[in-house]
Design brief:
Structural class: alpha/beta
Order of helices and strands: HEHEHEHEHEHEHHEHHH
Strand order of the largest sheet: 3-2-1-4-6-5-7
Number of strands: 7
CATH class of the largest domain: Alpha Beta
Shape: elongated
Largest sheet: 7 strands, mixed
CATH topology of the largest domain: Spore Coat Polysaccharide Biosynthesis Protein SpsA, Chain A
Distance between the termini: 20 Å
Radius of gyration: 24 Å
C-alpha cells in the first residue's frame, strides 16, 4: 500500500515548528512532501534570525509566524490555526525519519488511535543523543510513568501523529519544550487510545545547533510534570504533603510527649506550638486535596465531553 493511498480521504497536515533551522528546513519539507504527497506542509517560524522562513517557502511549505518564543507557544498556535483530520508534528532539525510518517498514520487509522509517538530509543545514530540526554530522557519518562502510570518509552519525542479530536481538545498551556510532557499527560488523563512506533533517529547535520539546553530545559520539564501532577491528581499530591507535614509534626512532638509523661511538665512551649501548627497545616492540606479532587473530576468530565464531541480519524 503506497503513502498516497494511505492518507486518501483524510486531510493531513504536517506541522513543523522552527527557530533558526535554515540548514535543515528545506530538506525536512522536501522529505515530508515525498513521504506524504497529499499532505499540506506548514512551517511556523518562531522569531528566526536567519533564512528559515524563506527556505521553507522555496521548498513548498506554507510559512506562518508565531511571535511568542517557545515551542509550546508555537504548537498552541498551530493547533488553533490548522484544520485537518490527521496532524503530523515534527521538528525542523532533520533528525526524524520522514518515511516513517506514513506507517504512523496507518497505525493511527487502523487502530483508531488519537496519538502515535515515534520513539527514538531503539534505532538511533551513535552520536544522535548528546551527553546526558539519553539518561535525562529515561529519568523524566520514568518519573512521569511513576506519577501517571504511563507506558510510554519516550515522552520527549517531538515526532507524533494526532487525530483531530486530540488536537482540538488539547488546552496547551506550556511555553517551551515542556509541551511533549503536556501532550502525554493530556492523553493519559483522558484515557485516550494511544500507541508508539519505533522510528530511526539521526544526528543533526553539521553546523546545525540544537536549541535544547540540557539542564535548564530538563528542570523546566521536571517542574511541569510536578505541576501537572498537582493539577490532575490533587488528592494524591496533597495527601503526600499531608503525610510529610504530619511526620515532621510527630517527630517534633515525640520528645515533648515523653518529657510530659515522665515529669508532667511541658518545658518547650515554642516547639509544642510549632508541632501543633504544622499538624494543622497538614490537615488543611488534606482538606484542600479533597476539595480540589472534586473540582478536577468535574473539569476532567468536561474535557472528556469536549473530546467526544469531535470525530476522530478512522471513525
Amino acid at each position: 500500500m503506497n503513502e498516497t493511498h494511505i492518507v486518501s480521504g483524510y486531510r493531513t497536515a504536517v506541522l513543523i515548528p522552527c527557530f533558526n533551522e535554515e540548514k535543515t528546513i528545506g530538506k525536512v519539507v522536501g522529505d515530508f512532501k515525498k513521504a506524504i504527497p497529499s499532505a499540506e506542509i506548514y512551517v511556523y517560524n518562531n522569531r528566526s534570525t536567519d533564512r528559515t522562513a524563506d527556505i521553507a517557502a522555496e521548498a513548498g511549505a506554507m510559512v506562518r509566524d508565531e511571535t511568542h518564543a517557545g515551542k509550546g507557544n508555537v504548537v498552541r498556535r498551530m493547533f488553533a490555526d490548522i484544520d485537518a483530520d490527521i496532524y503530523v508534528l515534527v521538528d525542523g532539525d532533520d533528525t526524524y525519519h520522514a518515511p516513517s510518517a506514513a506507517a504512523m498514520i496507518q497505525k493511527l487509522i487502523d487502530e483508531r488511535l488519537d496519538m502515535v509517538v515515534g520513539t527514538r530509543l531503539s534505532e538511533y545514530s551513535e552520536d544522535a543523543f548528546r551527553l546526558g540526554h539519553r539518561f535525562g530522557n529515561d529519568l523524566l519518562t520514568g518519573f512521569l510513568g511513576l506519577l501517571f502510570g504511563s507506558t510510554f518509552t519516550d515522552i520527549l519525542s517531538g515526532y507524533r501523529v494526532f487525530s483531530r479530536r486530540f488536537v482540538k481538545s488539547f488546552p496547551a498551556v506550556s511555553k517551551g519544550f515542556e509541551i511533549e510532557s503536556e501532550l502525554t499527560v493530556h492523553a493519559l488523563e483522558l484515557r485516550m487510545p494511544i500507541g508508539e512506533m519505533t522510528t530511526p533517529y539521526q544526528t543533526r547535520p553539521e553546523n546545525s545547533v540544537s536549541k535544547l539546553r540540557t539542564y535548564r530545559d530538563g528542570t523546566r520539564i521536571l517542574l511541569m510534570i510536578l505541576i501537572m501532577f498537582k493539577e490532575e491528581r490533587p488528592l494524591t499530591f496533597f495527601s503526600l504533603v499531608f503525610g510529610s507535614l504530619s511526620l515532621i509534626s510527630l517527630l517534633l512532638a515525640y520528645p515533648i510527649v515523653i518529657t510530659y509523661l515522665e515529669t508532667g511538665l511541658v518545658p518547650r512551649f515554642p516547639t509544642a506550638i510549632l508541632s501543633t501548627g504544622i499538624m494543622i497545616l497538614a490537615f488543611l492540606s488534606l482538606t484542600c486535596g479533597f476539595i480540589l479532587d472534586t473540582v478536577t473530576r468535574g473539569r476532567r468530565e468536561l474535557k472528556r465531553l469536549i473530546y467526544l464531541s469531535i470525530p476522530g480519524a478512522g471513525r
